[in-house]
Design goal:
about 750 residues; alpha+beta; 21 helices; about 50% helix; about 15% strand
Length: about 750
């Protein structure tokens, strides 16, 4: 039977868990109307850890959207009309959400299918899997769920033993009271006449001896029961510790790492629902065992029997408290990080969440969370449990928030919506370190009680590093600091240490991820692009990618030292390319119309073998955030490659790249041989709407064959579409590289 058909028959909590799997990230209506198609795809054939599998995920995403659109088209009637609109909206929504990160769609659907299968299995009490979702992720989830089942059985077993112990102890106390009654009767015989005493005393003595013998045996039995129960609790706590380590030190840390990489443009870190369900199961199991241990201690105090049990129970109580303390403090997390480049006097938001808040009823007395900004040194001292004298490194407005419990989702969280950094206190900088290299962090802290004030916890969590700026001009360098930290930080580091140098391929992964995210494109940096960047970074002329595999790049080379002959760093140049592409060139980059990462000599070599009028688009080497057009044309003396002065954001805010190319009639073919109108015409502004165009060309005082006029060193500003193109350009064909 199809999983979806069975899932719809779930009841109670299982149904609620199933419903919580869906939301804006994946609407339940999509699951319903495409259930057969979804369950028929080989989702487990895609390795989520392998970026090379992205194209498979993209095909599945495209197929899913096509199926939705087909389903929408076949809807008829009044109800069908509304459904058609809704399904069409979902198709657009899913494309917008996952087009940049199709692997996240696969991760999402895998999680949904696996959880549905688990819920169906649990509901039908069947151990046989419903489907074939035994990929590595589902196997890991299955192992975690199997461990929870083992813990459930262990806890049920100790509960049964505890009840048996309590029953036996109650009966022991009754018999003990009986022995005291017999002893009282024997004592009272002294008041009787000798004849009566001799008549009744032997029977009482015999009865007392029998009861005392039974009490001695039963005391040993009770002691054995207590020791056996303590040993079982020890085993349960070992399994609990192991399970908690897997969930907190593996799964939660991986989620936090994904969250950090998402700050560099990596895939979304994914929801916390499954992690919360695991943490809540841990909390429930820990609390049940803690109550059992306390009941066992109560029984021991009620009937003290000499032996090692007192020490064992004290040790168990201490251990279970440590376990629950680790769970509570580790599950106080930042669900939505504050911006990592933080400008003073600017509103920002963040969300903190306690994954076990609902299960431990923390919301019954809603705790308040406070946010403060602290320096790197203060963060180090905090993690060493050294006193920071409640110092902060600045003042945050609206920095207190009460945690709220959301009944529908079962989440306990605090949403800081209107924080603002009023001022910042900077520390003394080291060496060449600039203000945009100084790292701070937002400290979130709270206090709450568990079990009716039985346990009180002080909890703290640190945000990802933030760089504080006071002006937008600092954003570029601050982003470099954040990118380097997010990409190369290691789990468990001392705040906020990162390596000073990394292998070039590692840096390539980081800047490629950032580039795709900023430009919002699936077209990342090719191997040829990365070779070009390596040549720029290392002042090398080698075209062999292997020559750069083992080379390292230091932070100083990345964004402290200027490139040779330039007044900007490698990162500043690269960031300028990203900004220009993101704002003005995205469709052309996605179409493959922009080669971009080509130097002047390479452009000349590529164009000289092509027909006149062939051109290409490359990013300027000499100007941050500039793109130039290089084209080949006849000169009276020889064929030459000409280069326009670079266009920048300022130019494109006046007139688009496509319109500028349209205006230049001497540009005929986009390299290698595509007619320019075939590539760019869909982006042309209709003639009646066209605006004045800016054209700036760098030529010498020479005769330009494409225009038939002498070009001088004056700089042209505008040329109107409705008038013939007039060349008033400046520069020389062999002038410094634009």
């Amino acid at each position: 039977m199809a999983v979806w058909i069975q899932a719809q028959q779930l009841q109670g909590d299982a149904l609620h868990q199933m419903q919580s799997l869906y939301g804006q990230h994946f609407p339940i209506e999509v699951r319903h109307y495409l259930s057969q198609w979804i369950e028929g795809q080989l989702w487990d054939a895609i390795d989520l850890e392998n970026p090379q599998e992205e194209f498979k995920a993209k095909r599945l995403l495209d197929s899913l959207i096509q199926e939705l659109q087909n389903k929408a088209e076949h809807q008829v009637g009044e109800d069908g009309f509304l459904l058609k609109i809704k399904l069409g909206h979902y198709a657009s929504q899913l494309k917008s959400t996952y087009d940049r990160c199709p692997l996240e769609l696969v991760r999402c659907i895998k999680h949904i299918l696996y959880t549905e299968q688990r819920l169906v299995r649990e509901a039908t009490n069947s151990s046989s899997p419903v489907g074939g979702m035994m990929d590595s992720m589902s196997q890991k989830y299955q192992q975690i769920n199997q461990a929870f089942e083992e813990l459930r059985l262990l806890t049920q077993d100790t509960e049964n033993d505890l009840r048996k112990l309590q029953h036996n102890q109650e009966y022991f106390i009754i018999q003990y009271q009986e022995s005291l009654r017999i002893q009282a009767q024997l004592t009272s015989l002294s008041a009787l006449p000798p004849a009566d005493r001799q008549l009744r005393e032997p029977a009482l003595l015999n009865k007392r001896a029998t009861v005392e013998a039974w009490l001695t045996r039963e005391a040993n039995t009770l002691q054995k029961y207590r020791l056996d129960l303590a040993e079982k609790h020890q085993k349960t706590l070992q399994v609990l510790r192991k399970q908690q380590t897997i969930i907190l030190d593996d799964e939660l840390i991986q989620w936090k790492r994904r969250q950090q990489l998402a700050g560099n443009g990596g895939p979304p870190e994914g929801g916390l629902d499954i992690l919360q369900s695991w943490c809540e199961k841990l909390a429930e199991t820990i609390w049940q065992n803690r109550q059992q241990i306390r009941r066992a201690e109560h029984l021991r105090q009620q009937l003290p029997i000499p032996g090692p049990i007192e020490e064992l129970l004290n040790e168990l109580g201490s251990t279970i408290t440590d376990i629950i303390s680790a769970l509570v403090t580790s599950t106080f997390i930042i669900e939505k990080q504050p911006p990592q480049v933080l400008k003073t006097q600017t509103k920002f938001a963040a969300t903190v969440r306690l994954l076990v808040g609902g299960k431990l009823n923390v919301h019954m007395n809603p705790p308040q969370v406070k946010a403060t900004i602290i320096s790197e040194q203060q963060a180090k001292a905090l993690l060493k449990n050294e006193s920071t004298r409640n110092d902060s490194s600045g003042e945050i407005l609206n920095n207190n928030c009460v945690m709220e419990f959301h009944q529908t989702t079962g989440t306990l969280s605090a949403h800081f919506r209107n924080m603002s950094l009023k001022r910042i206190k900077r520390s003394d900088r080291r060496g060449a370190e600039s203000v945009t290299e100084e790292k701070f962090t937002i400290l979130f802290e709270s206090q709450f009680s568990v079990g009716g004030n039985e346990l009180v916890f002080q909890v703290k969590t640190l945000s990802l590093p933030v760089v504080v700026i006071v002006h937008g001009s600092q954003d570029n360098n601050a982003t470099a600091t954040v990118l380097w930290d997010n990409a190369f930080a290691e789990p468990g580091r001392v705040p906020f240490l990162v390596p000073d140098k990394v292998l070039w391929p590692q840096l390539c992964d980081a800047i490629n991820m950032k580039y795709k995210a900023e430009v919002q494109s699936n077209r990342g940096l090719s191997e040829e692009n990365l070779v070009f960047l390596a040549q720029k970074a290392f002042s090398s002329s080698s075209n062999n990618p292997e020559d750069y595999r083992n080379m390292t790049m230091t932070w100083s080379q990345f964004n402290r030292e200027s490139l040779p002959g330039r007044n900007f760093t490698f990162w500043q140049w690269f960031d300028g390319v990203m900004e220009l592409t993101k704002k003005h060139l995205k469709p052309h980059w996605n179409d493959g119309a922009i080669l971009g990462f080509v130097n002047k000599q390479q452009a000349q070599d590529m164009l000289m073998s092509k027909p006149n009028g062939t051109f290409l688009l490359r990013f300027s080497d000499s100007e941050i955030g500039g793109i130039t057009i290089a084209w080949v044309a006849e000169n009276p003396n020889k064929r030459m490659v000409w280069n326009l002065m670079p266009y920048t954001t300022k130019d494109f805010s006046i007139r688009s790249l496509a319109d500028r190319i349209s205006d230049l009639n001497h540009l005929l073919f986009l390299y290698p041989d595509r007619p320019k109108d075939e590539v760019f015409s869909k982006y042309y502004t209709p003639p009646l709407c066209k605006q004045p165009s800016v054209c700036t060309v760098w030529f010498g005082s020479t005769l330009c064959p494409v225009a038939g006029v002498t070009l001088c060193w004056t700089r042209t500003e505008t040329s109107i579409w409705t008038t013939p193109w007039t060349w008033r350009a400046s520069g020389a064909a062999n002038s410094p590289d634009p």
